[in-house]
Every structure is written in structure tokens, then in C-alpha cells.
Amino acid sequence: MKGAHILVTGAASTLGEALIRSLLADSRVQHVLAVTGRPVEEVCFDEPDRVTVIQVDLRRSRRVHDMLFGPARDLGVDVVVHLAMHHGAFREGSGVHAYNVEATRSIIALSERHPTIRRLVVRSDAAVYQVQRDLPVLISEDHPLNMGGSAPQWVRDRVEADVTACTRMGLSPLQIVVLRMAEILAPGTGSQLFDYLESIVCLRPAGYDPMVNLLTLDDAVVALQKAIHSDAVGVFNVPGADTLPLSACIRKWGRIGVPIPGAWMTPLYRVRRRVTGHDFRYGMNRRRFHYSGVLDGTRAREVLGYVPSHPVDWPADAPAEDE
Amino acid sequence: MPFPPAIARAIALSLLDPDEVERLRNLHFDDAGHGYDPFGMHPAFVALGLALAGPLYDRYFRVESRGHEHIPRSGPAVLAGNHSGNLPFDGAMVWVDVLRHTDPPRVPRPAADHFVPALPWVGTFFARGGVVGGSRGNARALLESGAMLMIFPEGTPGIIKPWKERYQLRRFTVGHAEMAIRHRAPIVPFAVVGAEEQMPQLFASKLLGRPFGIPAVPIPATPIPLPVRYHIRYGEPIRAHDEHPPEDADDPEVVRRVADQVRDAVAALVERGLRERRGIFR
Known about the structure:
The structure holds two protein chains of two kinds.
Chain A: E1 4-9, H1 14-24, E2 29-36, E3 51-55, H2 61-75, E4 79-82, H3 94-112, E5 119-125, E6 138-139, H4 153-167, E7 175-181, E8 183-184, H5 192-196, E9 201-205, E10 211-215, H6 217-229, E11 234-238, E12 242-245, H7 246-252, E13 256-260, H8 262-276, H9 282-285, E14 294-295, H10 298-304
Parallel strand pairs in A: 1-2, 1-4, 2-3, 4-5, 5-7, 6-14, 7-11, 8-10, 9-13
Antiparallel strand pairs in A: 10-12
Helix pairs in contact in A: 1-6, 2-3, 3-4
Chain B: H1 5-15, H2 18-24, H3 43-60, E1 64-66, E2 77-81, H4 89-100, E3 109-112, H5 122-129, E4 132-133, H6 136-144, E5 148-151, H7 156-159, H8 175-182, E6 187-193, E7 201-205, H9 206-209, E8 217-220, E9 231-234, H10 240-243, H11 252-276
């Protein structure tokens, strides 16, 4: 692709900023339209002549329309990367839903009839998958989704946004790619596990030690770059280079893992949230703290050429034989 | 696990024969990056499992086994056999037997019923030793990676069958046949003789099983297994994939026929094992 013009929503998020920096370093990219909900002056990038930052409230479909058929059309944007998603696990309500789901719906519908946009890359999440004892540990793209009505809005919105994108695949001229990313162990990414590991003592349900897969910001950016510059469409799992048990993850992060009866987890983490303001919500993570769920990246490897190659920089890494 | 692999390895080293330790160094497995495979298996826990189950194998159940030449040394394979004994010592003994009699050592991956991963501690320890939940997706992933699955096609109804029905095989499920055809894997039938008598069952309580998500809890007449002698027999591999293309895996008649063929082969091995043994304890 020569001289691509790329629109990135969620541009002020950790992932958005990392992606835009990487796009600016990519000679195949001519211009980036960075869309953020924050005031423009709070967001700055190197090479200001190759990036335009605009503030748009994605909850309002009219604003989304005006952004796509205004600055985006004028710039000749051909690829949209939709990263915007509320991170707060306890943020609920119609405004959050509008941001998480309705914005996705608007972007898809408007991009389908847009004169210059030909490709849409939607960032989804491994949290859309159901994890339970009778399901496979290795999660492929056809794995059951977490459609349970009892799931919190944080999960339901992610599933709905993902499915909204998937249902248009093949039905519109738009090339749609959904990247279901493993949890990015980094601040500002909405990672529940990162928030969980912020405490020196990490409680976990006694008797269980599930396998988890973790992605780094660098690998997430590589996957997005490959999705942007490919012609492939469809759903792709994006696993990270680190697959390990939860207990090892706690240990390598330099934390102390304390197994406790599972029934105590929810009340104790509720107290932790009230006292410290942390965002980790045990009820939302209960199943994956019991049963393993590891993304199978075969399709991303074979079709997009994505192979995770940036492992987590573990602060308390031990020599391999002592893992 | 309550302890890291380094401790598992240290315990295993202190219990295992040095030759065994040396042999286990050649253990092949799909390391996902931190010494574990994606399903949670870790060589240190395999060694620990061998160190703990070894004395049961050698001294308690005094396992006698034949037909190891039928176990493929590499590539995808399905071990399919009879299940019995109220507690899955039969699976553990076959696991040890295959590990000890393959060179380089192969870890058979037992496919357990869905309630097993939900059992605290037990589920985790089993996963570290190579046990996986018996879902189609897990079986597919393992066979595609060239692993050897261990399946008891009778399922839980086989292990909790009453005393008077011992050595009467239940109807085999067809999943193993379907997987073997689809993933071009030979099926190695095996029989375990002896396990049926280890814990004579008084009755099986569905009520007690409900809180644990287990189909039924068998109430045995003995609190611990009797020191019966195990006899394991492996039969000639059934190469259903030579006769059937992968698409036949979707043909219900074909997979039923292959599953029945496997069942007949296991039944014949059970008969042979019963004939060859000189008594329950010998």
C-alpha cells in the first residue's frame, strides 16, 4: 500500500498512541487522522504535518458522520482502525454503551457508504470468549462467545461490538477485520490483570491455577499494522508470546500470590476497590481464574503473518530452571 | 499449583532413579514459552507424577504389561481402552506404562470428563501431568500438534460400573474414531485387567455427585484400592485413516463402525488379559 491515509479512533489511549507512533514511522503511511475524545491540545505526536488530531464525541452518531464525511473524506482516509472502548470495568449505562457499541455500529454503517474508506480494523478482546470447564483450553475463532445475560456490561458491550462488526462481513463492500486481542499487560489498556497485579499481595482461588496468555503493547501494534496493510478479512485471534499459569504470572510480576477460598474473592476484591479505587472486578474474571483459556493464533499466523515476538518484560523474572 | 516447578523437580529428583531422570530429559512437549504447554503441562510435574505413581505401579499394583511395540514413537495417535475401578488408577498406570516404555518418552494426554478440570488441586495437578478436558477442541489441538491422546470411550459410566458388571464394556462413544479419521491418527486399543476388582462398589450416588458436578459418586466397599495386580495389553493399531478419507469423519455410520471395531479390539484384549492372569492378586 502506497501513501495510506489512516484514521485511528481511541488515539489518546495507550494502544492508540503506540499505534500512531508506529504508523508515523512507517513509510507506507502518508497521513494519520487521530480521533480522540480528549481536547486536541492534550494529544501531541512527532511529525505534526503527518498527523491531524481531532476531538470527536463518538457517542453521537451525527459527530461520527461529520467526522467521516468531513475531515476523513477530505484527507482521503482509506483505512479506519477502531480502538475506542471504555476501559473502566465498573462504568455502566447508556453513555458507555453508546461509546462501546453504537459508535462501532455507526462507524461500520457510515464507512460502508463512504467514498474513500475501503477497510475497517476493529480491535476486539479475548474477553468476548466464553471460558468454562467443558470448553477447549485453546481458543480458536469459532469458540463460543460470552453471551450470558449475567455478564457485566463491560463484557456484553465488547461482545456486541464484536458481533456487530462480524455480522457485516461479506455483506458490504467494506473489508472488515476483527482482531480479538489477548490481554495487554500494560497500564492504560483496560487490562484487568494489570490492575489485579498492582497489589503486592494477589489473592487467587485456592486449588486453581489456570493458564493465561498475555500480549504486549509492541505485539498488539504489530498485529494492527499487519491487519492494516493486509487485504485479508475476517476474525483473527491475536495471542501474546507469554503463556503461563496465573501463579507464575503473579510470581514473575514480583507479587505474592495467596490462595484463598474462592467464595472470599469477590467480597475481598470489592473491599479493595472501595479502599484503593482499583478497577479489578473479580466477578468478571471468576471463570478465567478457574479455567484455562489461551488464544490460538494459527489463523493470524497463516493469513496475516502475525507471530508474537515481544514477550512481557517481567520485573521479577527468574532463571528458566526456577520458573 | 501450591508450589512452583522447581520444587516439583527437586522432589522428583530425590525420588526418581537417575537413569529415569536422564531419560525424562528427552521428553518432547510443545513449550508455549515458560516451560508449560498451552494446556498447562510441565515436564517437572510429569517427573513428579512419575515419581509419585511409580511406586504404585511397581509395588502396589505390580503392573505387568505387553504390546508396547504397538505404541507409535511419534506422530498423532489415540490410545483407547476400557475404564474401571471407581477411581482412575487405571489411567494413571497406563500413563506411567507408556511414559516408561517409549523412547524418547511420550506423555499420553488423558482426556478427562468435563468435571475434572473443575476439581480444585486435582484438576490443576492433572493438567500439569498432561491431562486435558475431554472437549473436541482440546483433542483436535493436541492431535494437530502430533500428541498422543489417551481416551476411555466408555466415559464415566465405565469407571463407576457395578461389581456384577465388571469387564462388561459399555457402549463406546464415537469421538475418538471421528478424531482419528479426521487427523490421520492410528488408534491403539488397550485393555486394563485388574482395575475392576480394586474397589468393589456398593452403589453409586447421583445425589452426592451433584454438588461436585460429577455424574455419580461411587461408594466402594473398601476405603482404599485393594492391591490387585494390573495387567495392561496393547493391541495392534487400527489404522482407520488408511481406509477412510478425512471427510468420512462426518459420516455417522463410518465412525460408529470404527468405534465398534475399537471396542471389539479392546474386548478381545480384556479377554486375553483375563485368560493370562493367574488370579486377581497375581
